[in-house]
Amino acid sequence: MTYFKPATLAGCLAVAISSYPAFAQDTFLMDGVTAREGDNPVVETDKYKKDCPWTIGMSHFGVNANTWTVQVAHESEAAAAKNDCITKFILLDAGFDQKKQVADIEDLVAQNVDAIIVQPVTSTSADASIAKAVAAGIPVVLHTGRIESDAYTTEIQGGAEHFGKVMGDWLVNEVGADGKIWVLRGLAGHPEDTNRYNGLLQSLEGTNVEVIAEEHGDWQYDKAKNLCETLYLNNPSVDGIWSSGADMTRACVDVFKQFGAEIPPISGEGNNGFFGQWIRDGFKSVSAEYAPAQGAAGVRAAVALLEGKELKKHYDYNPAGWDVDKAKQYYREDLSANVWWPTELPEEKLQELYGKK
């Protein structure tokens, strides 16, 4: 079939998908994803069941925010391409604009898509639009950020507090109860940033660890590099660094190397560039796991609903942290710094998107 490709990911991606084998007849969402314990209602089976072909829409909070968000888009498209029932996959980029996300979701409702996947810009930006979609009979799958409403159909949430606490517990153990640390947060106001930070606060409870600097690096290398340079010049005496994302970690490591200083213990994430740094330079770190394959999991959840399979309302993704030995198992010298682990992208796609030329 014909493919329609826009010039960039930043616009609406409306892709006609060629035929591939359909998903297996189970409700597997992603490695490490499990149904939440406790009160967790079952989505009414067959409520959204529809004969294919299907059109699935996705409201992405900001495709080009960093390399991780770009890969989420790729993972989502690749998962859709594997299912011969999905004849159209529409990806809309909110660009971290709350009003744009509202308009995007309402546009998908107006197009009468069969399911919508939402990554919220903020904890409230998508609430009303999601409610409108569900009222119109369109199931909504939520991931990569919680919202204040429960109008969505099902959610797959990487435990942001868990992510922050994995890094925080490790760092407290490294710096001791009286250590002094820098805190590099993500995008201010984004639910993932807030909840990862709350996980750090849990780790700090009952300790005398002092946060001597706290800044938002927006999960971006360039901004974090400027921040770390300023922090180092103001006060280089820091015992450890809690970094909410690997691009910021890489930036800070590069700053310490730039000044010829010892790299303090610093938290990281499953990014190929960071893994290479970690392996080569031998500093102390832990890698919290936050797979961009959550994009593929969202597509699979939408498919399961349209196939009439049983899903729960809430799914969690709380993997353990990785040590450097596990990082070595994933690191790829032949791929760029921009690929994130673990991934579901096939080898040919990894080479196309991230292969070193």
From TrEMBL:
* Signal sequence coordinates: 1-24
User: What GO molecular-function term can you cite, just one?
Assistant: carbohydrate binding
Residue ranges of the Periplasmic binding protein domain? 64-310
Cellular component per GO?
outer membrane-bounded periplasmic space
| Subcellular location as annotated | Periplasm
User: Does this UniProt record's set of keywords contain Ion transport?
Assistant: no
Establish whether keyword Signal is in the entry. Answer: yes
**Which Pfam family is one of this chain's hits?**
Peripla_BP_4
Per its UniProt record, what InterPro entries does this chain match? Bact_Solute-Bind_Prot2, Peripla_BP_I, SBP_2_dom
Keyword terms: Signal
Q: Which family does it belong to?
A: Belongs to the bacterial solute-binding protein 2 family.
Q: Which PANTHER family match?
A: D-XYLOSE-BINDING PERIPLASMIC PROTEIN
Protein's name in the database = ABC transporter periplasmic-binding protein YtfQ
- The gene designation is ytfQ_2
